[in-house]
Amino acid sequence: MTISQMRHEEALRRARKRAREIRSFYISATMYAIVIPFLWIVNLSTGTKIWAHWATFGWGIGLTIHGLSVFAGRSFFGSEWEERKVEELMARENLKVVSNEKQVVQAQMRMLQAQIEPHFLFNTLATIQSLIARAPDKAELMMDNFIAYLRQSLSASRSQEGTVKQEIELLRHYLDLLKIRMGPRLEYDLEIAPGLESEPLAPMLLQPVVENAIKHGLEPKIEGGRVRVSATRADSHMLLRVTDNGLGFAEHADSKGQGVGLANLRERLAVLYDGRAALTVADAKPGTDITLSIPLAALAAPTNAR
Question: Can you give the three-state secondary structure of 45-106, one letter per residue?
Fold first, then answer.
């Protein structure tokens, strides 16, 4: 059965139900018009105490309610009211589901931060310790960047929404720390189009992508390479791109866009922006090009968890 046939059958079922309701009311009204006068004739002809008014009023009230349920009930408590009530309850249930999903995503984000920060913390402290004796200037520079990174990261972990500028600054401190460790093998560019600095952005969206690009693309490459992060405007969306000239698709399966990290990121985007955001992965030849398309708040406010 096609959709149009199903709709026709449903409309026919409702029409028949409606016809039965109207016929039932007409039968009740006809019976009222016949029986009530007969009762008054019997009551008045017997000459006893008046009692027919009880049947008149009682049956009349019932008939009135019946008429309202048939003719006005579609708007108040009939089929139309039922449909509106079902839609309202469904909307509430969907809202609860979305709210629960966003709470799960927030918990995943906090767990992700908890996983990233200790690993990064220990590696950075070990590098600083190794530099103190042989390169104290580098150790001091690395400590300054590390403190700035921790301050920015702590601020991001306590908020459910940040800005593009805050995310880029967090990446800057992160990349500065890695650059001290990797030396000339790591170069980076960070660019934000004018007007996007204050654009709202869920925290920790870009760092896993940048970390993935360095871990799988640049670090295994003997000569290293460059990672470029940019934020631009495209109609009603903001494009966040992370491009590297590392090993790319050929060497690492995770760069093909099927890895767990990118799958989790896709899930976060779907929940935080109600399906209006997207993540695409392309082969940069060499390297990988990952783009996050996020709706601009000025045109389509993101429904992230607040």
Answer: HHCCCCCHHHHHHHHHHHHHHHHHHHHHHHHHCCHHHHHHHHHHHHHHHHHHHHHHHHHHHH
CA distances from 228 to 45, 149, 189, 299 (A): 103, 19, 5, 27
The per-residue pLDDT for range 161-217, each reduced to its tens digit, is 788 998 998 899 889 888 888 889 999 999 999 989 989 888 878 888 898 888 888
3-state secondary structure of 135: coil
Tallying the residues shown for the chain, one arrives at 306
Q: Are strands 288-295 and 278-283 parallel, antiparallel or unpaired?
A: antiparallel
pLDDT digits (tens, 9 = 90+) for 252-281: 444 444 555 677 788 778 877 878 888 999
249, 288 contact by CB (below 8 A): yes
Residue 273's nearest CA partner among 231, 305, 243 is: 305
Q: What is the model's pLDDT at position 305? A: 39
CA distance 108 to 190: 27
Residue 263 · residue 208 · CB < 8 Å: no
What is the model's pTM? Answer: 0.56
Question: What are the φ and ψ backbone dihedral angles of 206, each rounded to 5 degrees?
Answer: -95, -30
| Selection from 254, 232, 243 nearest residue 284 by Cα | 243
Assess contact for 281 and 222: CB atoms under 8 A.
no
For the chain (306 residues), the mean pLDDT of every run of 10, in chain order, is 72 79 86 86 80 84 79 59 69 64 58 54 74 82 80 64 87 88 90 91 84 86 92 91 84 48 77 84 88 75 41
150: its two tokens? 């921790």
Q: Using alpha carbons, select from 148, 213, 208 the residue that is nearest to residue 176.
A: 148
